[in-house]
Structures are given as structure tokens and as C-alpha cells.
Amino acid sequence: MTIRLFKQFQTLKLHGVCSVCPLWRHAWSCYSTEPNSPTVKTSIPGPKSIAMKRDLDLIQNTDVVQFFVDYDRSVGNYIRDVDGNVLLDLFTQIASLPLGYNHPRILEVLKDPANISAFANRPALGIYPPTEFAKLLSETLLSVAPQGLTQLQTMACGACSVEHALKGAFMAYRRRERGGSAPTQQEIDTCLMNTPPGCPKLSVLSFKNAFHGRTMGALALSHSKWFHNLDFPAFNWPIATFPTLKYPLEEFYKENIAEDARCLAEVEDKIESAKKAGQPVACVASEPMQCEGGDRYASPQFFQGLQDICQKNGIALLLDEVQTGAGATGKFWLHEYFHLRDPPNLVTFAKKMLTGGFYYTPDMRPTEGGRIFNTWSGDPSKVVVLKAVLGVIKDESLLARTTDTGNYLMKSLMDAQEKYPHLLSNARGLGSLAAVDFPAAAPRDNLVERLRSLGVHVGVCGTSSMRLRSTLTLERKHVDIFADRFNTVLRDT
């Protein structure tokens, strides 16, 4: 039956409305071309969205729901809501759409009979991986691995990727302490009671304003917004200051170098203090650019110095590329801009990679089975789709396009900042990641809402930053639409 339906769908053409096969009407979009521009018919959220939110609110908290989406009719860089409003989407599901909505190469993967098993069966990958899974990983995730990282673990999402990467760092640290010996019986017994020596007093150093996820271990590394952390027990782990750069960077070179040095000295001090307190640091975790915390960058020299400190102290360096990876900056990984002497020990990914997981150096590899594990440990169907995404990135030179479009976008932000200095400051960005600051949250939020009423959907971060998170397929024509409406709102502010 399933094979027949796939074959039936293969006969359909992705042009106009599909009236041939109602079975697939809600499974795949039948719209193949982007609109020329946004169209707004109602307030956003519109009446249908408001009614749907009321229904959903009966069973869960919907305070952050903005509007309901007609995903069948969203296409490319445009998202369509249930009220018929079509918005240029520069937030893209919180930075997680590499190619936009209903990309034809992804639809081809979904209707290919050869891929049915990957979507129909979700295996427990740690113990029952599918046929040729190693080959699939080699052709996809390993083909774009950060240089020098040959080990890989798939996971479901960014937060669980961070969680398990931390476990890898802890295990490696303890193996070195044991000199490679097996754990003692005392360690085995006490770990089941959450007490030392089986559960050692180790720590992870993170940074103020960081965000690594909402599960408990990742949350202990996250310090960007109070509602992420309130009421939850947390580890007493050290938290250092992430550099606050001044813009334009070329005008504040000396000040920024001094800021890097100050923050690195603080990192060293926190590591030494944790050691003296009997809770040594086993891992330093950092985003290459703090996203949720306000699109905060640090210099390559800062990360080079951070790696030096980690190596001097026998500490793993974890770079969290969940939001910054998969070509978002014009390089596949943001940390490629840092020119690190050695690979980071652990690099987490998710979002635009479609699957979660982490790369790691051989010394981070578990020596016993089942210690980095959960029932699914990822999803092969996501890796199948990722293969198509990577093909498009290569065939259409999307990294180069992202660099070009990103530079064009930055020029529009800089021009607006120069024209409206009382409203905008610190325009910054790389590729599809861009942000600009407002004097406070209220004027930012007001502008974002008014921009959406003109058909452009953007996001926010930090205390007063507007952030843009476009697809890799964004073009200059899309930037022109954004810039026109952005300037309209600024002019009327």
C-alpha cells in the first residue's frame, strides 16, 4: 500500500495546486515557487490563529505562541500563516531551516520509495542500526565534520547533544585520573547513590549570557534569561565573563584586545578557584557566538587563548555550534574563522543540520558501551534528508551565496544604523546571522511587531537586540524587501 502511494505521488507535478491526490495534499506542499513579495491580509495573529491558540491553550501553556502556520503553503523563504498572511521569514524556525520551506530536493527524498524504511521505522540506533548506516554517516555528517574530528555521535536535538558531550568530557577526565585503570568497586557502588567517588565533584566552566539548552545539565551552562532557569536546581559550576566587544571593531581594536585579555584572565582565575574548592573544571563550554544572549561575538584571539588555557590545564574545550553551524556564517562551522591550532575536543550541532549530535576527538570516545546512549540516539530519516541538503549546498554554492547575501544584508543594516543612530547601534553579523541593538527592549519589540505587520518576520535576542536568521537560499532580492520595510518602520518611529 505504501509503495503504491509513493508511486502515485511520483506522478504528480509540483506546479500549482494538486487536485489529483488528496491523500498527499496535506503531506507535501503543492506550491513550488516563492511569491514575489509578502502579503498581509489581517492583523498578526489573525482570527484563525487566535481561535487555534485558544483551543491549544486548553491543554498546554501557549504564552509564547505567535501565530499558527500553514506549512503546506509555505515555500522557500516565505512562511504563510493560517489566516493567509505571507511573510518573508528571517527567523526560520529559530535558525533551523537550511533551505527554506518545502524545498523540491527535500520533497524528492520524501517521495523516493528507497527512503520509505528510514521514515517508517525509527531504530534504537545504539543497538540496532539500519543497513549501511556507517556509509550514510560517512556521506553526510562526516563529510562536513570540523577538520580533525573523526568521531561522531548522533542525537535528537541540541540540548541532548550538549548533555551527552559533557558526559564524554567527564568520562575522559576521570579516565586520565585513573591512569586508564578500571573503576573501583567503591566507585561503582557509590555512583548508584549519587555520591563520591563514583559521582565525582567535577565542574564545567561556562559564560555569562550563554545558552546551551533547557535540559538540566545544559541549563546549568545557560545564563541568558531568568525564565529559562528559575525554580530549577543547578550545579554550582563556575561562570566567567564573555567578552563584550565594541563596534565598529576596526575602531576599537585596542579596547577589544584588552577585553579579551581581561576575560581570559578571569577564566584562568575561575579554573584555579574551582580546583582549590575541590571541584576541578573538566570542560569549558562556549558558543562560538552567543546567540540567545544577544549575538555576542568574541575575537579569534580570545578562542585561541581559551584553547591554550584548556590544554594547559588538561580541560576539554566544547564549542556549541547548534545555531552557528551548517554553513550559517559562510563557512560550514563558525569556529573555522578562529584558526585554532588544534581541533576543539567536542563540537555540538543541531538546527540546520536537521539532526542533533556531536563530533569529538578520539580521547573523548567512551571505552564502555551504553554510556553515551538513549533509545533512539537520533533519527536516520533526518540524516537521509540532510544528505539532500548537503547536495544542494554543494551544487548551488550556497556557502558563497550566504557570504555574499550576508555582506549585502550587513550593508543594509549599517546604512540604517548610520541614518537612525538614535535607534540602532552595534550592527553585526556573519552570513545568515545578523543583529542590531536598540536602546531598550520596548522600542525593539515595537519595531519587530510593526515589521511583521508589513510582512517581514524577524526574531529577538539578548536584552535589546533584533536578530535575523535567514536560510542559506536567501538572495539579494529578499534583502531588498527587508531593507525597504525596515526603513519604512524606522522612518515612522
Write the layout of secondary structure elements.
Blueprint: H1 2-10, H2 22-25, H3 47-57, E1 78-80, E2 86-89, H4 92-95, H5 104-111, H6 116-120, H7 133-139, E3 151-155, H8 158-178, H9 185-191, E4 203-207, H10 216-219, H11 226-229, E5 239-240, H12 253-276, E6 281-286, E7 289-290, E8 296-297, H13 300-313, E9 316-320, E10 346-349, E11 356-360, H14 380-395, H15 398-419, E12 425-430, E13 433-437, H16 441-453, E14 456-457, E15 459-461, E16 465-469, H17 476-491
Parallel strand pairs: 2-14, 4-5, 4-6, 6-9, 9-10
Antiparallel strand pairs: 1-2, 3-11, 7-8, 10-11, 12-13, 13-16, 15-16
Question: What features would you describe in this structure?
Answer:
This is 4-aminobutyrate aminotransferase, mitochondrial. Its cofactor is pyridoxal 5'-phosphate. Keywords: Aminotransferase, Pyridoxal phosphate, Transferase. This protein is α/β, with parallel strands linked by helices. The protein has 2 domains: 118-393, Aspartate Aminotransferase, domain 2 (3-Layer(aba) Sandwich); 396-493, Aspartate Aminotransferase, domain 1, CATH 3.90.1150.10. It has 17 helices and 16 strands. The chain has helices at residues 2-10, 22-25, 47-57, 92-95, 104-111, 116-120, 133-139, 158-178, 185-191, 216-219, 226-229, 253-276, 300-313, 380-395, 398-419, 441-453, 476-491, and strands at 78-80, 86-89, 151-155, 203-207, 239-240, 281-286, 289-290, 296-297, 316-320, 346-349, 356-360, 425-430, 433-437, 456-457, 459-461, 465-469. The strands form 4 sheets. The protein has a 7-stranded mixed beta sheet, with helices on both faces. Strand 15 (459-461) and strand 16 (465-469) form a beta hairpin. The longest helix is centred in the middle third of the chain and has 24 residues, at 253-276.
